[in-house]
Amino acid sequence: MTSMTETESVDVLIVGAGISGIGAARYLTVEHPGKSFVVVESRAAAGGTWDLFRFPGIRSDSDLYTFGYEFKPWREKDAIADAPLILNYLHETIDENGLADHIRYHHRVRAAAWSSQEARWLVDIDRADTGEHIRIRARWIFSGSGYYRYDEGYTPEFEGRERFGGTIVHPQHWPEDLDYEGKRIVVIGSGATAVTLLPALAEKAEHVTMLQRTPSYILPIPRQDPLANWLKRRFGDERGYALARQKYIAQQRLVFEFCQRFPKAARRLIRKVNASQLPEGYPVDEHFNPPYNPWDQRLCAVPDSDLFRTIRKGTTSVVTDRIVTFTETGILLESGTELEADIIVTATGLNIQVFGGIEATVDGRPVSLPDTVVYRGMMLSGVPNFAMAIGYTNSSWTLKVGLVCEYWCRLLGYMDDHGYDTVWADVDPDMPTRPLLDFGAGYVQRALSTLPRQGAKPPWTMSMSYYKDRRQLRHGDVADEYLHFSGPARRRVPRGTAAESVGA
């Protein structure tokens, strides 16, 4: 038996010290300065994705005017930024808001049990630094842990993998001492990570090949935005950042809507841009012509056309084919071609894991995520005092997280004003549902059966529109007929829980 030491009792426990968790902590500090909270982080440092991934060239795949927080201007000149700049921005946010003393590192949440009678979460945590097993009591849990596994990336089974005599690397676990200078490298994949790696590796490698089964839509964008930088010079960091942010929000939405409404025209336009960036006679339709419509999966951005520039120089190439087997010296393809390699990089995606794999119960009843429905994109039906941050797939992640945090803080204030300590959302069991994310990416499709679901209409939809969410989360009513509240004066519990009999 392992001993369990109860260490703290807080109003809010925030899971994850990445961009979502740091943002939630800042909103809570400003909007509810009297509430106690801790941020638990399983790793040894803050920053989430931007501290975890160390592969060459890692950068944002959307602009920092919308990927950054609304409350903190992005002061750098680059709109598309490298990881060190983003990490510095996050650490500044921690320092400027006095969050460092609230963060507990090496704390991995293992289980969380809600007690309706106590109106508390009992959260069991493993401490990797001391080997202790501790428990924290919390009135609320805010999950800012993202949606993928931090300890394991996705790698499909490759025939003959054990035969390969070189080095195989997954970008999620990039060795700091990997020497790739003068080496032949094959990067398997065609997503954002692959198109980032190619030009970065090409600076030292002999040659880098991107091996893809299916092409992606790839668009060149400027690393710096002259208009955004002019706005900051003209109006100052605060106002200039706000104006640039609104410009990018509108721009992202227009591009998405255009691609959705006029997919054929969007496909032709993207192809024309690609062809203009590639060498004369390049087989554009073989390597840059996906079988799906634009924005059925996320578009890949390449700042200052860096990928296309390396293709023109001949330091990188793209091969579209299927893998038969790894060999001693490379990869044999269905076409009969063998790609020789010293290093193979499996940029094959992520493993989705919502809420960090926490085992949750409500009054002794296990929470089955596929049996829950999202409420306003930030709560789960039948799960009290639990909020989550899942950002947009068609726009910058942080845009959604900011609105979620605003609504969450409004909800906390509403509960305080009315003497409530518990809230949960009830869904009509006969309401039709559909998958949580309408997104064709492989990492999403592999995990849909394990995720919560969404309904057919608000507030049960996982909205991907900033403007709609702004109306609902920032300006809409806090409470509606689907939210149920409870407090010391009249204790109620969610339907279907083991403790339902104690409630009215």
TrEMBL record:
Keywords: FAD, Flavoprotein, Monooxygenase, NADP, Oxidoreductase. Coiled coil: none annotated. SUPFAM superfamilies: FAD/NAD(P)-binding domain. It comes from the Bacteria. Pfam families: FMO-like, NAD_binding_8. Its cofactor is FAD. Belongs to the FAD-binding monooxygenase family. GO terms for molecular function: flavin adenine dinucleotide binding; N,N-dimethylaniline monooxygenase activity; NADP binding. InterPro entries: FAD-binding_MO, FAD/NAD-bd_sf, Flavin_mOase-like. This is Putative monooxygenase. Gene3D superfamilies: FAD/NAD(P)-binding domain.
